[in-house]
Amino acid sequence: MKLSIRHFFTFSFLFEVFLFIFTEYLALGVALSLALKYNTASSATVEPLPAWQFILAFLIATVILLIILKYFKKPWLIQVLFYLAILEGLWIFGSAYFNWPEVLYFIIGILCFWLFYRNVFMHNIVIVLAISAISVLFGQNLMPSSAIIILIILGLYDYIAVFQTKHMVSMFKGLAENKVYFSLIIPQNFKGIFKKISEVSPQTEFMFLGTGDLAIPAIFIIACLKISLLTSLWAGLGAVLGFIFLYILFVTQKERAPMPGLPPIILGCLLGYLISFLL
Question: pTM value?
Protein backbone atom coordinates (compact mmCIF):
# COMPACT_ATOMS: atom_id res chain seq x y z
CA MET A 1 0.00 0.00 0.00
CA LYS A 2 1.29 3.45 -0.87
CA LEU A 3 1.87 5.75 2.09
CA SER A 4 -0.05 9.01 2.12
CA ILE A 5 -0.54 11.87 4.55
CA ARG A 6 -4.01 10.60 5.44
CA HIS A 7 -2.47 7.59 7.18
CA PHE A 8 -1.16 9.92 9.88
CA PHE A 9 -4.56 11.47 10.56
CA THR A 10 -6.60 8.32 11.06
CA PHE A 11 -8.16 7.70 14.45
CA SER A 12 -6.35 4.38 14.83
CA PHE A 13 -2.89 5.91 14.26
CA LEU A 14 -3.43 8.87 16.58
CA PHE A 15 -4.96 6.67 19.28
CA GLU A 16 -2.16 4.10 19.01
CA VAL A 17 0.61 6.71 19.19
CA PHE A 18 -1.07 8.41 22.14
CA LEU A 19 -1.28 5.14 24.09
CA PHE A 20 2.33 4.28 23.27
CA ILE A 21 3.64 7.69 24.41
CA PHE A 22 1.41 7.64 27.48
CA THR A 23 2.66 4.19 28.52
CA GLU A 24 6.35 5.04 28.10
CA TYR A 25 6.26 8.30 30.00
CA LEU A 26 3.79 7.01 32.58
CA ALA A 27 6.40 4.35 33.41
CA LEU A 28 8.90 7.15 33.89
CA GLY A 29 6.46 8.93 36.19
CA VAL A 30 5.89 5.77 38.23
CA ALA A 31 9.64 5.25 38.62
CA LEU A 32 10.21 8.83 39.78
CA SER A 33 7.26 8.66 42.17
CA LEU A 34 8.52 5.42 43.72
CA ALA A 35 12.01 6.89 44.04
CA LEU A 36 10.65 9.88 45.95
CA LYS A 37 8.27 7.85 48.06
CA TYR A 38 10.63 5.06 49.09
CA ASN A 39 13.96 6.79 48.47
CA THR A 40 15.00 3.96 46.13
CA ALA A 41 17.87 6.07 44.86
CA SER A 42 19.66 5.29 48.11
CA SER A 43 19.56 1.57 47.33
CA ALA A 44 22.29 1.81 44.71
CA THR A 45 24.25 -0.86 46.61
CA VAL A 46 21.73 -3.51 45.50
CA GLU A 47 23.34 -5.72 42.87
CA PRO A 48 21.69 -5.08 39.48
CA LEU A 49 20.09 -7.90 37.52
CA PRO A 50 22.42 -9.41 34.89
CA ALA A 51 21.14 -9.42 31.30
CA TRP A 52 21.31 -13.21 31.03
CA GLN A 53 18.96 -13.68 34.00
CA PHE A 54 16.37 -11.40 32.43
CA ILE A 55 16.60 -13.21 29.08
CA LEU A 56 16.41 -16.62 30.78
CA ALA A 57 13.32 -15.61 32.76
CA PHE A 58 11.72 -14.25 29.58
CA LEU A 59 12.37 -17.48 27.66
CA ILE A 60 11.12 -19.67 30.51
CA ALA A 61 7.90 -17.64 30.75
CA THR A 62 7.41 -17.92 26.97
CA VAL A 63 7.96 -21.70 26.98
CA ILE A 64 5.53 -22.16 29.87
CA LEU A 65 2.85 -20.15 28.09
CA LEU A 66 3.35 -22.09 24.84
CA ILE A 67 3.06 -25.40 26.72
CA ILE A 68 -0.14 -24.27 28.42
CA LEU A 69 -1.65 -23.15 25.10
CA LYS A 70 -0.66 -26.31 23.23
CA TYR A 71 -1.18 -29.10 25.76
CA PHE A 72 -3.47 -27.93 28.55
CA LYS A 73 -5.91 -25.80 26.55
CA LYS A 74 -7.75 -24.65 29.64
CA PRO A 75 -9.09 -21.10 29.20
CA TRP A 76 -9.46 -20.55 32.94
CA LEU A 77 -5.76 -21.27 33.56
CA ILE A 78 -4.67 -18.74 30.91
CA GLN A 79 -7.09 -16.16 32.29
CA VAL A 80 -5.83 -16.67 35.86
CA LEU A 81 -2.25 -16.00 34.72
CA PHE A 82 -3.43 -12.92 32.86
CA TYR A 83 -5.32 -11.57 35.86
CA LEU A 84 -2.38 -12.21 38.19
CA ALA A 85 -0.06 -10.23 35.90
CA ILE A 86 -2.56 -7.37 35.76
CA LEU A 87 -3.04 -7.44 39.54
CA GLU A 88 0.71 -7.23 40.14
CA GLY A 89 1.02 -4.28 37.76
CA LEU A 90 -1.87 -2.42 39.37
CA TRP A 91 -0.41 -3.02 42.82
CA ILE A 92 2.94 -1.52 41.81
CA PHE A 93 1.23 1.43 40.11
CA GLY A 94 -1.05 2.08 43.07
CA SER A 95 1.88 1.85 45.49
CA ALA A 96 3.62 4.65 43.62
CA TYR A 97 0.82 7.14 44.23
CA PHE A 98 -1.21 5.92 47.21
CA ASN A 99 -0.64 4.82 50.78
CA TRP A 100 -2.33 1.93 52.52
CA PRO A 101 -5.31 1.41 52.49
CA GLU A 102 -5.94 3.86 49.60
CA VAL A 103 -3.92 1.64 47.27
CA LEU A 104 -6.36 -1.20 47.98
CA TYR A 105 -9.36 1.04 47.21
CA PHE A 106 -7.68 2.10 43.96
CA ILE A 107 -7.11 -1.49 42.82
CA ILE A 108 -10.63 -2.61 43.74
CA GLY A 109 -12.13 0.40 41.95
CA ILE A 110 -10.13 -0.17 38.74
CA LEU A 111 -10.88 -3.91 38.75
CA CYS A 112 -14.60 -3.31 39.29
CA PHE A 113 -14.78 -0.92 36.32
CA TRP A 114 -12.70 -3.30 34.20
CA LEU A 115 -14.71 -6.43 35.00
CA PHE A 116 -18.10 -4.70 34.88
CA TYR A 117 -17.74 -2.81 31.60
CA ARG A 118 -15.38 -5.20 29.77
CA ASN A 119 -14.94 -2.87 26.80
CA VAL A 120 -11.94 -1.77 24.73
CA PHE A 121 -11.53 1.50 26.62
CA MET A 122 -11.24 -0.07 30.09
CA HIS A 123 -9.10 -2.89 28.73
CA ASN A 124 -6.55 -0.43 27.34
CA ILE A 125 -6.54 1.63 30.54
CA VAL A 126 -5.77 -1.42 32.65
CA ILE A 127 -3.08 -2.66 30.25
CA VAL A 128 -1.35 0.75 30.19
CA LEU A 129 -1.36 1.06 34.00
CA ALA A 130 -0.15 -2.50 34.55
CA ILE A 131 2.55 -2.55 31.87
CA SER A 132 3.97 0.85 32.82
CA ALA A 133 4.33 -0.35 36.43
CA ILE A 134 5.75 -3.80 35.62
CA SER A 135 8.31 -2.13 33.35
CA VAL A 136 9.49 -0.09 36.33
CA LEU A 137 9.91 -3.27 38.38
CA PHE A 138 12.41 -4.62 35.85
CA GLY A 139 13.97 -1.35 34.70
CA GLN A 140 14.97 -0.30 38.21
CA ASN A 141 17.03 -3.48 38.55
CA LEU A 142 18.97 -3.15 35.30
CA MET A 143 22.02 -1.15 34.40
CA PRO A 144 21.78 0.65 31.02
CA SER A 145 24.55 -1.58 29.60
CA SER A 146 22.61 -4.73 30.51
CA ALA A 147 19.40 -3.19 29.17
CA ILE A 148 21.08 -2.55 25.80
CA ILE A 149 22.11 -6.21 25.56
CA ILE A 150 18.54 -7.22 26.38
CA LEU A 151 17.14 -4.87 23.73
CA ILE A 152 19.37 -6.29 21.01
CA ILE A 153 18.68 -9.93 21.92
CA LEU A 154 14.92 -9.45 22.22
CA GLY A 155 14.83 -7.49 18.94
CA LEU A 156 16.45 -10.44 17.16
CA TYR A 157 14.16 -12.85 19.01
CA ASP A 158 11.06 -10.89 17.98
CA TYR A 159 12.11 -10.97 14.32
CA ILE A 160 12.73 -14.74 14.41
CA ALA A 161 9.58 -15.47 16.44
CA VAL A 162 7.32 -13.64 13.96
CA PHE A 163 8.93 -14.28 10.56
CA GLN A 164 10.68 -17.64 10.97
CA THR A 165 9.44 -19.88 13.77
CA LYS A 166 6.16 -17.91 13.86
CA HIS A 167 5.46 -19.14 17.38
CA MET A 168 4.75 -15.57 18.48
CA VAL A 169 1.86 -15.43 15.99
CA SER A 170 0.61 -18.83 17.20
CA MET A 171 0.82 -17.68 20.81
CA PHE A 172 -1.22 -14.55 20.05
CA LYS A 173 -3.87 -16.60 18.23
CA GLY A 174 -4.04 -19.04 21.14
CA LEU A 175 -4.57 -16.23 23.62
CA ALA A 176 -7.12 -14.55 21.33
CA GLU A 177 -9.12 -17.78 21.12
CA ASN A 178 -9.45 -17.61 24.90
CA LYS A 179 -10.36 -13.89 24.73
CA VAL A 180 -7.16 -13.00 26.56
CA TYR A 181 -5.63 -9.93 24.93
CA PHE A 182 -2.39 -9.10 26.68
CA SER A 183 -2.07 -6.26 24.21
CA LEU A 184 -3.54 -2.89 23.41
CA ILE A 185 -6.64 -3.09 21.25
CA ILE A 186 -6.74 -0.37 18.60
CA PRO A 187 -10.12 0.29 16.94
CA GLN A 188 -10.46 1.85 13.50
CA ASN A 189 -12.83 4.54 14.75
CA PHE A 190 -13.97 6.24 17.95
CA LYS A 191 -17.05 4.05 18.35
CA GLY A 192 -14.81 1.01 18.55
CA ILE A 193 -13.48 2.19 21.92
CA PHE A 194 -16.75 1.17 23.54
CA LYS A 195 -17.05 -2.25 21.88
CA LYS A 196 -17.28 -5.19 24.25
CA ILE A 197 -14.23 -7.44 24.45
CA SER A 198 -16.46 -10.33 23.39
CA GLU A 199 -16.92 -8.55 20.04
CA VAL A 200 -13.17 -8.16 19.46
CA SER A 201 -11.14 -10.62 17.40
CA PRO A 202 -8.20 -10.55 14.95
CA GLN A 203 -10.74 -11.03 12.16
CA THR A 204 -12.64 -7.82 12.99
CA GLU A 205 -11.71 -4.17 12.41
CA PHE A 206 -9.21 -4.02 15.29
CA MET A 207 -5.42 -3.88 15.40
CA PHE A 208 -3.31 -5.13 18.29
CA LEU A 209 -0.12 -3.83 19.84
CA GLY A 210 1.64 -6.41 21.99
CA THR A 211 2.63 -5.57 25.53
CA GLY A 212 6.23 -6.47 24.76
CA ASP A 213 6.36 -3.57 22.31
CA LEU A 214 5.35 -1.32 25.21
CA ALA A 215 7.28 -2.90 28.07
CA ILE A 216 10.73 -3.44 26.53
CA PRO A 217 11.36 0.22 25.57
CA ALA A 218 9.86 1.34 28.90
CA ILE A 219 12.28 -0.95 30.77
CA PHE A 220 15.18 0.64 28.90
CA ILE A 221 13.89 4.15 29.61
CA ILE A 222 13.74 3.37 33.33
CA ALA A 223 17.22 1.82 33.30
CA CYS A 224 18.54 5.04 31.71
CA LEU A 225 17.48 6.95 34.83
CA LYS A 226 20.69 5.61 36.40
CA ILE A 227 22.50 7.97 34.00
CA SER A 228 20.14 10.96 34.00
CA LEU A 229 16.54 11.99 33.46
CA LEU A 230 17.57 13.65 30.20
CA THR A 231 18.94 10.36 28.88
CA SER A 232 15.63 8.66 29.71
CA LEU A 233 13.67 11.40 27.94
CA TRP A 234 15.79 11.10 24.79
CA ALA A 235 15.49 7.30 24.83
CA GLY A 236 11.71 7.72 25.16
CA LEU A 237 11.59 10.12 22.23
CA GLY A 238 13.62 7.68 20.16
CA ALA A 239 11.19 4.89 21.05
CA VAL A 240 8.26 7.03 19.87
CA LEU A 241 9.96 7.79 16.55
CA GLY A 242 10.79 4.10 16.16
CA PHE A 243 7.16 3.26 16.80
CA ILE A 244 6.03 5.71 14.12
CA PHE A 245 8.50 4.08 11.71
CA LEU A 246 6.97 0.70 12.63
CA TYR A 247 3.55 2.07 11.70
CA ILE A 248 4.87 3.22 8.32
CA LEU A 249 6.28 -0.25 7.67
CA PHE A 250 2.98 -1.84 8.70
CA VAL A 251 0.65 0.26 6.53
CA THR A 252 2.89 0.04 3.46
CA GLN A 253 2.86 -3.77 3.35
CA LYS A 254 1.56 -5.26 0.12
CA GLU A 255 -0.59 -7.60 2.20
CA ARG A 256 -1.51 -6.85 5.81
CA ALA A 257 0.30 -9.36 8.04
CA PRO A 258 1.75 -9.53 11.58
CA MET A 259 5.07 -7.72 12.01
CA PRO A 260 7.76 -7.81 14.70
CA GLY A 261 7.33 -4.53 16.51
CA LEU A 262 10.49 -4.45 18.61
CA PRO A 263 13.28 -4.00 15.98
CA PRO A 264 12.32 -0.45 14.84
CA ILE A 265 11.31 0.59 18.35
CA ILE A 266 14.59 -0.67 19.79
CA LEU A 267 16.54 1.06 17.02
CA GLY A 268 14.80 4.31 17.97
CA CYS A 269 15.59 3.77 21.67
CA LEU A 270 19.28 3.27 20.98
CA LEU A 271 19.50 6.26 18.65
CA GLY A 272 17.82 8.45 21.27
CA TYR A 273 20.22 7.10 23.88
CA LEU A 274 23.24 7.98 21.70
CA ILE A 275 21.89 11.45 20.89
CA SER A 276 21.59 12.20 24.61
CA PHE A 277 25.37 11.80 24.91
CA LEU A 278 26.14 13.78 21.76
CA LEU A 279 24.09 16.71 23.04
Answer: 0.89
Environment class of residue 178 by beta-carbon count within 10 Å: exposed (0-12), middle (13-18) or buried (19+)? middle
pLDDT at 189: 87
Average pLDDT over residues 216-224: 95
Rounded distance, CA 69 to CA 12, Å?
Answer: 30
CA distance 91 to 122: 17
* Preceding peptide of 101 cis, ω within 30°: yes
122 confidence band (pLDDT: 50, 70, 90) = very high
The distance of Cα 68 from the centroid of its chain, to the nearest Å, equals 22
First to last CA, the chain: 37
Which residue(s) pair with 105 in the sheet? Answer: none
Spatial CB neighbours of 241, under 8 Å, sequence gap ≥ 6: 268, 271, 272
The per-residue pLDDT of the chain, averaged, comes to: 85
d(CA 37, CA 95): 9
pLDDT digits (tens, 9 = 90+) for 29-41: 999 998 887 775 4
Closest CA to 15 of 247, 186, 215: 186
CB 220 within 8 A of CB 276: no
Contact 133, 89 (CB under 8 A): yes
Largest alpha-carbon pair distance within the chain? 54
